[in-house]
Amino acid sequence: MRIISIINQKGGCGKTTSAINLAGITARRGFRTLLVDLDPQSHCAAGLAIPEQRIDLDIGDVMLAGADQHVDPTRLFWRASRNLDLAPSRMKLAGLESSRGGLADKPDKERRLANVLSRFSRNYDICFVDCSPSIGLLTYNALAAATDILIPVETSFFALQGATKQVGTIKSLAKKLGSSAPYWLVATIHDEGSVLACDLLEELRRRFAKRVAPHIIRRDPTLKEAASFGQPVVEYAPNSMGAKDYTALAEWLLETVTPGHESRPRIPDALPVEGDLAAEPPHVEVVGAMESKLSLGKRSPASDSASLREAPGVPVINPPSVSPAFRDFSPPPAPPPPSDHPAPPTPGVTVSPPGSGLSMAVAEPRATQAIRTEVFVNVQAEVAEAAEISRAEDMAQRARVMLLKRADERLRQMISQGAAGTTSGAELAEIKPIPPVVLQDSVRAKQESVRQLLGVRQTRSGVLFVQPLTAGLRVSVAGDFNGWSATASVLKRNEALGVFELCVPMRPGRYRYRLVVDGRWTADPFNDQSEPNEFNELNSIIEVEEQQG
């Protein structure tokens, strides 16, 4: 696995922007890509629409873990988009470098990140490490693990002066750590219309010659817009100037081989076709006591049961924060950039055959199949609409902020023109306030109706359990009806409907049950019927009535 660390102790030079967009482009090219955030500000998670408050295991937790501790990849890695996983950070990562942070007293304190990445090196082709704007233990770890080093440099006077010191610092640290990774300077936030910026770019190339990447990143507001919508620019605006610049840089990096190391990523077997970029959860397969293998695609039945088994006697990392039961791996979709040509109509959704996603223990009469077909066609439409509604709330807020910014810029421009005598007060009065973007009550009502379709209900064929695909990677149900087994009743993925589902034949009676989501036991969040158990937790309840006729 090739590891490219992006380092500069100067802030605001485009480190995080470069990390997110280079990772997004290599993932789009079909390379299995890992993005590691070593910045306590957690900007990579924000730039990929991953909520920091729902992160319960970060890269710092894993760096502190011993070699004999099992790392659960389903808790560490977040699927940002197809082929792209994020190992996030949190604010507490800032304390890791302190004398009492736990890292400074480790004998291999500079190589903890390299050890972590070696566990998963077979699962990824390329890794980008976003570093904090400082030189400390975290940066030492990024240097020790790197096969290549990128130094983003803004084409400004102070940035140019700092670049010389930055290169000297990296050389001395690399010598101390025994690293032979080559470094490359990348000109970022470059203003082509500025004579000073162009002169500074030429001076940068004169000073560092072949150490300067042949491609520059020009200043482009689209890069900030893409980050605000939680997407790499190549997905948000693939024809923008920023997307073209980062694509050229990424392709150059993929063709550049580290001297002395054959670190060029493997060529993917099949590149994704345009438009086939839906987020897809990683396939987790346990291959040893201290290693887990992540790969794309659906799980095989054999790996389903193996993925949750842990080696006996191997401790598990359990940070004090409580993990949420449900994660959403898909960032909210962004509206397309302005275009003179209307977008083609979106093709309709294809409904899977009736009952194709259900595992039934008994055959059904045709009338029952017809009823179930009607129910799940409604589920498909309602669940899809609910996903759009939940995303729409976030998108509405972001869109309003951007509209206000644009209106404010336009207002300042017209006021300045008015001060020069070119704009009248009547023209300024034409600027009308932007109406708030809100969701209609009817839409919210539909969202509530979708919640009623999820959970558990009795049907003529048995008890039907339905959970959203965003619940996790693997969902099973354990209860009185199966001896509280976490593996006997595994819900099946139905990609067409966007749900996990399972129908279990049960005799009339009262049953207690709990969901097992990626190995964590939890009550059914869509079932209000529950009671406390002996562990002071909640068991969900389903009462099965005798069928009439």
Keywords:
alpha/beta; 3 domains; 549 residues; 17% strand; 5-stranded antiparallel β-sheet; 18 strands; Immunoglobulin-like; 7-stranded mixed β-sheet; single chain; 34% helix; Rossmann fold; 15 helices
Ordered list of secondary-structure elements with their pairings:
Blueprint: E1 2-6, H1 15-28, E2 33-38, H2 43-47, H3 59-64, H4 73-76, E3 78-81, E4 84-87, H5 112-119, E5 126-131, H6 137-145, E6 148-154, H7 157-177, E7 183-188, H8 195-208, H9 221-228, H10 233-236, H11 241-255, E8 283-286, E9 292-295, H12 301-306, H13 366-419, H14 425-429, H15 441-453, E10 455-459, E11 462-468, E12 475-479, E13 492-494, E14 499-504, E15 509-517, E16 520-522, E17 530-532, E18 538-544
Parallel strand pairs: 1-5, 1-6, 2-4, 2-5, 6-7
Antiparallel strand pairs: 3-4, 8-9, 10-11, 11-14, 12-15, 13-14, 15-16, 15-18, 17-18
Helix pairs in contact: 1-11, 5-6, 13-15
Description:
With 549 residues, the protein is of the alpha/beta class. About 24% of the residues have low confidence. The chain has a seven-stranded mixed β-sheet with strand order 3-4-2-5-1-6-7, sandwiched between helices. Strands 12, 15, 16, 17 and 18 form a five-stranded antiparallel β-sheet that branches. Strands 10-11-14-13 form a four-stranded antiparallel β-sheet, covered by helices on one side. It contains 15 helices and 18 strands. It has three domains: 259 residues, P-loop containing nucleotide triphosphate hydrolases (Rossmann fold, 3-Layer(aba) Sandwich); 61 residues; 94 residues, Immunoglobulins (Immunoglobulin-like).
